[in-house]
Amino acid sequence: MTASTATDPSGPRSGQQLRKSVAASAMGNATEWYDYGVYAATATYLTDAFFPGDLGTLGTMLGFAISFVLRPLGGMVWGPIGDRIGRKAVLGTTILLMAAATGAIGLLPTHAAVGVTAPVLLIALRVVQGFSTGGEYGGAATYLAECASDRKRGFLGSFLEFGTLFGFVGGSATVLACQLVLGSDAMHDWGWRIPFLIAVPLGLIGWYLRTKLDESPVFEEVADRPHPPGGLIEVLTTYRRETLTLIGLVVALNVVNYTLLTYQPTYLQKTVGVSESTTTAMMLIGQLVMMLTLPFFGALSDRVGRRPLWLVSLIGLSVLALPMYWLMGQGIAWAILGFIVLGLFYVPQLSTISSTFPAIFPTHVRYAGFALGYNVSTAAFGGTAPLVNEAVIEQTGWALFPAAYMIGASLIGLVAWSFLRETAGTSLRGTGVPDAETLLKPPVPDAPLTNTAVLDPIVDTAVMDPIDPDAPAASRY
Fold first, then answer.
1. Within 10 A of 133 (CB to CB), how many other CB atoms are there?
2. Which residue has the higher pLDDT, 340 or 312?
3. For residue 7, is pLDDT > 50?
4. Are 28 and 210 in contact (CB under 8 A)?
5. What is the C-alpha to C-alpha distance for residues 367 and 358, in angstroms, rounded to an integer?
6. φ, ψ for residue 123 (rounded to 5)?
7. 464 pairs with which residues across the strands?
8. Which of 318, 334, 275, 309 shows the shortest CA–CA distance to 407?
9. What's the average model confidence in pLDDT over 459-476?
10. For residue 166, which phi and psi values (nearest 5 degrees)?
11. How far is CA 444 from CA 6, 375, 421, 451, in A?
12. N or C end of the chain: which has fewer CB within 10 A?
């Protein structure tokens, strides 16, 4: 299949409506990642509360990883529903589930009160959280990509990842504030509950914003016309290349993500010997630097393309991971520098997720394909990264293993990158696979104009020739 290109569908969705779409999408992402940020920053408190004993840290990391077990199932459920009934309804449901599961953690009894029931309840809530996020991120990225201008999709999409880091920073900042106000003893006793409870009002705000949204114009266009079948079977049979490409890229993306943003506090405290509050402050500094650069890299991808940014990021992480992790062991100032350097090389990936990944698939399978490929890869290689890092370091004592794990994942990403189509500036409309190379090809001489993409020299964007009403339905896209 080839891309079907058309006039930018987001024209009527500009201005206030587009800003609402960006804000509502980013708010849900912030709620999701607020949970991860709080869980990472409170890992030592959760260990004492739920997993006392010699293997307590492994238990806490297992509690983090287990939330990813149901992410693929969540993607299999929410993705096809989103392709069938629309993006908006699913996004309203998933944000409520996420907020409820996160808030409930703050109400759980501890191991000292109810014994083994406490960690079982914690893990059960992490499973609920994982099931809901299985549809959250793919839906938010798909919705935002379909509402954004073709020529500004990278810039606007970067604000979804701004929400990711905002959630992480918000979670870490909340924990730090509690640490400074309450002190270590109170935090270990009951103060760790407060950051989890704050997720409930955050989720309600995000849900309210999403109830005010209109449906994606790209989805509405396809839903109103005859189109090929969607669903998981269509994804796995017709779009195998696209699915495998996405899975490989997500291996690189998420091993780095969950190592740098989730496991890092535990690594610095246990391996490097940095104090709790200093670790939290260091993570905040690094994440704030990453947040400030996200829109820049998103806008840059609109000008130079997604593939060049991913290539620089993957090669940079492969080369610099080991020396930067060695640097982190030389003192707190060096640890901050090493974290910021790796974070800056990771940002070109992070800033272009929501402009790159939805564009891998056509509209009628976009939500399902994204949710399936993203969550399968995340469950296997992303959420398990803290557990793998901790287990290997405890068994071998090799403090540089997280760097080696990053390098291996980045090499897998480079293989997947070689199959990635460039989609910067390409329309997401229709049922063809978006591809910038197809967009730039000249029309075949004397060919019918019912489905030919041309370049309008005045507006410098793709336009679609009028659709022949008598043409077969499949050729109308």
1. 32
2. 312
3. no
4. yes
5. 8
6. -65, -35
7. 453
8. 318
9. 36
10. -60, -40
11. 18, 40, 22, 11
12. N
